[in-house]
Design brief:
It is built from four helices and 15 strands. The chain has 269 residues and is an alpha+beta fold. It has two domains: 115 residues, Nuclear Transport Factor 2, Chain: A (Roll), CATH 3.10.450; 113 residues, Jelly Rolls (Sandwich), CATH 2.60.120.260. The strands form three sheets. Strands 1, 2, 3, 4, 5 and 6 form a six-stranded mixed beta sheet that branches. Strands 8, 9, 11, 12 and 14 form a five-stranded antiparallel beta sheet that branches. It has a four-stranded antiparallel beta sheet with strand order 7-15-10-13, with no helix packed on it. Strand 11 and strand 12 form a beta hairpin. It is globular.
Length: 269
């Protein structure tokens, strides 16, 4: 009998240890409540309420964030959602898995992170959709088809020129473009920074992304290392079709945030 009781106690402890610490607690309920309010605000296209519930590191200006969020809501409308899973990363971070349905027929598995700094808020940055994001069902997209050209010359989708960018900076091309297919070209690219003469390495990741209210969807990306003063052109592979895409630049952190990165180039296809 004593052995049986010991086994039962052990099984009970194992079952309790398998339940997330926050499950059924006020912590989990509070975070899920904020996420529910956030998703309802997206369904209702209430951009002002959305902004009170989110921290989006992609923006340094509230004005530009509100302007782009308003565009995202009009472009792709959320009509239904399900909160499927939640797991506690730390006392101040809870990860959720959601299934979102949009008006164009798209169904997506979207990871959403909530962080607590005095209160729970949805946390978004440029990497929010890089892991555990999945398009379950493709939706209809309005894609602008390029007219067939007699000349084999590539079309410039977007160009850029930047200076005085810090190490570890993330920023986007000023102009947007439409992209599809599987290959594009980073053309006539130059990149360097102010500390090259001290031997500090140079590196920039060029990602072709579509910004959205829940993060960036990526078409493709290419990392270039080294100081490049003589323009180079390299291919970048991708997949999918996006309207309103941008080039997202991520500079290597280096030895200081004041790296003075500068560069130029264009994306062609």
């Amino acid at each position: 009998m004593k052995k049986l009781l010991a086994v039962l106690c052990l099984l009970g402890l194992l079952l309790l240890s398998s339940v997330p610490a926050f499950a059924g607690t006020d912590t989990g309920k509070d975070a899920e409540g904020i996420l529910t309010n956030y998703l309802n605000a997206i369904v209702n296209q209430n951009v002002d309420e959305i902004l009170t519930l989110v921290i989006d590191e992609r923006y340094s200006s509230d004005g530009s964030q509100k302007e782009e969020y308003t565009h995202f809501l009009e472009e792709k409308k959320l009509i239904d959602y399900k909160i499927k899973k939640m797991s506690q990363e730390s006392p101040t971070q809870i990860n959720f898995e959601t299934i979102l349905t949009f008006d164009n027929g798209s169904i997506e598995r979207v990871p959403i992170v909530l962080k607590n700094d005095k209160s729970w808020k949805v946390f978004i940055n440029e990497k929010s959709l890089e892991k555990n994001y999945e398009v379950i069902q493709e939706g209809n997209q309005k894609i602008v088809t390029k007219p067939q050209e007699i000349s084999p010359q590539a079309t410039t989708l977007v160009s850029w020129s930047f200076t005085n960018r810090g190490g570890g900076a993330v920023f986007y091309s000023n102009n947007s473009f439409n992209i599809s297919g599987s290959t594009a070209t980073l053309a006539s690219v130059t990149q360097t920074h102010d500390y090259v003469n001290l031997g500090w390495p140079v590196g920039i990741t060029y990602a072709i992304v579509k910004k959205g209210i829940l993060g960036d969807s990526m078409w493709g990306q290419r990392y270039l290392s080294g100081s490049i003063s003589n323009p180079v052109s390299v291919n970048v592979s991708g997949s999918g079709s996006y309207t309103g895409a941008q080039v997202r630049f991520t500079t290597d952190i280096g030895n200081t945030s004041s790296m003075g990165y500068r560069g130029s180039g264009s994306l062609t296809q």
